[in-house]
Amino acid sequence: MVGEHMSKEVPTGRSLRLLRMLLEMSKPVTVYSIRVKQSELAKKLGISRQALNVHLRKLRNLGYVRTGRGFIDITEEGLNMLGITVNPAFIFVKVSPKSRNEAYKHMMNMPAQRIFRVAGDMDVLMMLEQEKLNQALQKLSEIEGIQDTKSYVTIENIK
């Protein structure tokens, strides 16, 4: 992954200022993205590519998905419609130093959106859907070397 970013052009001047301005003006949103060819998706659904396009257009017009060349994003509206909250939960995890490598391997298979190694009095920060909090805590309790967890549930996104 590191090498992937090195080969990309680094914006300068106005392009860089535009990117920074867009960041300042933006609001963080939750989007699930899939990189898939529409022909593959149609085959998986057992429908024609034309039928898939009709359904994708309908979902796009409703604001549930965004599509582009080689990707489909499920928007926050789409997630809400599916009953998935966009306000994540967070779990801070303290791991015994001797068990960290093995514990990290187990955490990679957990139902989390993002997992970060962090510095401080905890070792890992997990970001996940609130609906998966109980399942994640149960799985964490089964991992050797987990010393402590602290869970936080967000109420609303204010910026």
Can you put this structure into words, describing what you see?
- The protein has 159 residues and is of the alpha+beta class.
- It has two domains: 1-84, Winged helix-like DNA-binding domain superfamily/Winged helix DNA-binding domain (Arc Repressor Mutant, subunit A); 88-153, Lrp/AsnC effector binding domain/regulation of amino acid metabolism (RAM) domain (Alpha-Beta Plaits).
- The chain has seven helices and seven strands, in the order ααβααββαβαββαβ.
- The chain has helices at 2-6, 13-25, 38-45, 49-61, 76-81, 100-107, 133-141; strands at 32-34, 65-68, 71-74, 88-95, 114-117, 124-129, 146-153.
- The strands form two sheets. A four-stranded antiparallel sheet has the order 5-6-4-7. The chain has a three-stranded antiparallel sheet with strand order 1-3-2.
- The radius of gyration is 20 Å and the shape is globular.
